[in-house]
Amino acid sequence: MTAKPEFINGRTVTNAVDNASLARHRWYPIKEGFSPNLVADSYRELGADPKKQVLAIEPFSGSGTMPVECTRLGVACLAFEVNPFLAFVGRTKLRQADPKKLRTQRKTVLKGLRQPAVSQLESISTFCEGKGREKWLFNRNVLRTFTGGWQEIEDCPPTQRAFFRLALLRAAMDNCNAYPDGKCLRYKRLKSYDCFNANSVIAQFEHYCTLIEDDLTSTPFVSNLSKVECMDSRGLGNYAPQRRFHLCVTSPPYLNSFDYSDVYRPELFLAGHVKDNSQLMRIRLQTVRSHVQANWKAPVRVSFGTIYAKVIREILARKDKLWSARIPQMIQAYFEDMERLLNALAARANPGALLKIAIGTSAYGGVVVPVDFILAEIAEEAGWDLKDVQVVRRLRSSAQLWHHEDREKKVPELRESIVILKFPERLGVTH
Ligand SMILES: C[S@@+](CC[C@H](N)C(=O)[O-])C[C@H]1O[C@@H](n2cnc3c(N)ncnc32)[C@H](O)[C@@H]1O
Prior knowledge:
By secondary structure, the chain is of the alpha/beta class. Helices cover 39% and strands 16% of the residues.
């Protein structure tokens, strides 16, 4: 294990600080994203022959950092994301359109925004103000402005719709009374939420449209070089198996019991990806089993290497200290999912392929789960050669989570690492 400085070239690699300012990435950055520098640095490290077509793969696309950065570098990337809203974000960031035509069409959408329309979400609990509700996500005028604009976008040319939808969703979320904070949505600390209204939605929509137009001009993309599939990447083994990859940089959900589909609940509903909680549950059930909220199928495999065996024994011995009885099973299920994925990646890796996994460790019942090393053991078993585990960040935020969830005084030190693996030259077949 090597300790990598917290900053590489003055920038962190496992969090998305850069994404808020970089062309295309900034259209919709997310807290759990990694830095595009990790992608660019890894591509350089791969040392691929510039004349050879490199294929990259990303099983957990999130906001699309990997496919967007690959495309910027001229590398084709095949990405997967189970959350339809995030898949939409990634796909939109890959699109190209004429910025001048977008600017002209914007006027029509603005007309729609100035004609508020009743939203179906008004009746869904916590979405909107209503009798007996103390808190709600969107003021009624915000929701209605959004709906007026959304309906107008339906009539825009298909090549432009996605950009307007993304700009409007981002504008609505800026005017949401809550914000995503890791595990949950947290209400903004304001004396009043009246500052969020039709005018502020329109102003933000205009702001994001301008940003998109600027980036389409400054950073034009070749359409169709990369793509984002909306699917459960645990089924990767069955997807176009003839396509072998050279580079994979990915950040799976951490084993931290966060359910990302819950965090993106407002966007999923606003964009019409889900209509009710049962549809939301269907998405949750397709995510990696890193949380206990959904009633997923029980895991069957029990053996994931020596470190896992020791850790799970210790956790089971402290069962009474856990905040949910399902935690040991969640840990087992998580590594079963990751084992399946690492096997599928090994089956389609080119000789010498580089795989980097950005991951955080977790702690339950006073026991640290060294997810990075357990993944390294599983990957080695799947045929990958372990090159390094680089610690890139010590996690300071664990104290609050720890006290809250495990009611212990001692705060264990958690870390974020990058597990670096190479596929052996002898086992693969070059394509
Ligand atoms: C840590 S985030 C990835 C962030 C990404 N690297 C970025 O820069 O935006 C993990 C992502 O995995 C997605 N995910 C969870 N389970 C999945 C599955 N079974 N198949 C595909 N994606 C999944 C989540 O929706 C989430 O967007």
